[in-house]
Design goal:
Blueprint: H1 4-18, H2 28-44, H3 49-61, H4 73-87, H5 92-103, H6 114-123, H7 132-146, H8 152-165, H9 171-194
Helix pairs in contact: 1-3, 2-3, 2-6, 3-5, 3-6, 4-5, 5-6, 8-9
């Protein structure tokens, strides 16, 4: 069984080679960011080393499905992880856990285990940060590739609805990021109002 450190460079190289250039949000930088935040959140909760290895692999693979297609990409990410990790000697139960964690990022998020909650929060961590505007702009640009008819007004409404329905799951994100998310939501509502004045 190969360790994460030997799997990581090969997976990242494959993402760099195969992710479409129009993925301005779901790119390699996003995967690296989610991986980093997963590790940070895990250390805050004293996650055991064996669990951390599983979490890191899930974070690494969570958006690999975008190499194939956008729709149901989480399921494809699981299929890619399952294929690769089986070849590398990982036990079926470990692979199942990794796939469960990956699927916890599917919208609407419904994570159950602690590791699922960590990855779900790491994936949408930007909602509660001061980087929100920049990251959402990248996502808007990406979405316009798939639907050129989408307008900024529509995007603002979509974001408001998304943030209102979203919930963080880990204690840190609930306590620290949720208040910032609410500030971002209020700014979006102000933008929406200004569009009609």
């Amino acid at each position: 069984m190969e360790a994460f450190d030997s799997i990581f460079p090969r997976c990242i190289a494959r993402l760099e080679e195969n992710l479409p250039s129009y993925l301005y949000y779901h790119n390699v930088a996003h995967t690296l960011h989610v991986l980093n935040k997963s590790i940070v959140f895990a250390h805050q909760q004293d996650v055991l080393p064996a669990e951390l290895e599983v979490l890191k692999l899930a974070a690494l693979y969570h958006d690999t499905g975008f190499m194939v297609q956008r729709f149901e990409h989480e399921q494809i990410s699981c299929e890619l992880a399952r294929r690769d990790l089986k070849e590398l000697g990982y036990e079926t139960n470990v692979i199942d856990s990794i796939c469960g964690i990956i699927m916890a990022t599917k919208i609407p998020q419904q994570p159950q285990s602690n590791l699922e909650k960590i990855l779900a929060d790491a994936d949408l961590e930007y909602l509660g940060t001061t980087d929100y505007d920049m990251r959402s702009e990248c996502l808007f640009k990406e979405m316009k590739h798939f639907d050129t008819s989408i307008k900024m007004n529509d995007w603002i409404k979509f974001q408001i609805d998304f943030l209102e329905k979203h919930s963080f799951h880990t204690e840190f994100c609930i306590n620290v990021l949720e208040p910032i998310k609410q500030l971002n939501l209020n700014k979006l509502k102000e933008k929406a109002i200004s569009k009609y004045i």
